[in-house]
């Protein structure tokens, strides 16, 4: 039932994405397609998270500083956010579970842009107080790309990712041939999903497609590459569901955000 439903939604997204294709401006093509993905997430992910658009800040972020604007930000509802108006928000790094960049047609330039944004998100510092946790806690902000079209083979996307990493000096961490990889953060992207064509997953999720015996034989494996007309949206849905279904006793430590706040005339009373 789950597989059939999500596959049907993937078919639906591909079908309705043809409507904005009639527009003559790229922004008018991309914005509705972002909305389609956002609506899917809002109606399918659990209620502990919300979906927004905007930028991510940490305690070192400055007013007017250059920051990436993310198409989709999945964040925890129990954390505050800054309302910039027009549906654009500033999200505290502590609240963000994942980001998604939505592309009408994926190309190498789009991969490079997403990699850069992912690197910036992962470099943000979190200040939280934690007491307990249960379930999968992502080791960093997760970064995904969803595209409505792209190359015929996902191997091409994998090649683009590796080339962008090489040019940017991005080194992927060593991965154990056996045991848990879920605590090892990707240096940039966790996954690329081209609807109707296939997907590319970084092999650090608690549930994946690479079997333990394959890792033993090929310990250098870091990516699972799938060419498939169906399953891209399902794979993304499973990854996000697992990442948002944990139980965690954690709350914001606001003091680092208040480092520049001073009271000139402070008095005490009894």
Oligomer: single chain
Helix count, DSSP H or I runs of 4 or more residues: 6
Rg, nearest Å = 20 Å
Low-confidence blocks of residues? none
Percent strand equals 15-25%
| Major sheet summary line | 9 strands, mixed
Helix fraction, binned, reads 25-40%
Brief description of this entry?
This protein is an alpha/beta fold.
List the helices and strands and how they pair.
Elements: H1 2-16, H2 26-44, E1 49-57, E2 70-76, E3 81-85, E4 88-92, E5 96-103, H3 108-123, E6 128-134, E7 142-147, H4 154-168, E8 191-194, E9 198-202, H5 212-217, E10 223-227, H6 232-244, E11 247-252
Parallel strand pairs: 1-4, 5-7, 7-8
Antiparallel strand pairs: 1-2, 2-5, 3-4, 6-11, 8-9, 9-10
Protein name: DUF6602 domain-containing protein
Domain DUF6602: 21-124
Organism: Aromatoleum evansii
What does this molecule look like?
With 270 residues, the protein is an alpha/beta fold. It has one domain. 31% of the residues lie in helices and 25% in strands. The protein contains six helices and eleven strands. The strands form two sheets. The protein has a nine-stranded mixed beta sheet, sandwiched between helices. Strands 6-11 form a two-stranded antiparallel sheet. Helix 4 (154-168) links the parallel strand 7 and strand 8. The radius of gyration is 20 Å and the shape is globular.
Keywords:
270 residues, alpha/beta, 9-stranded mixed beta sheet, two-stranded antiparallel ribbon
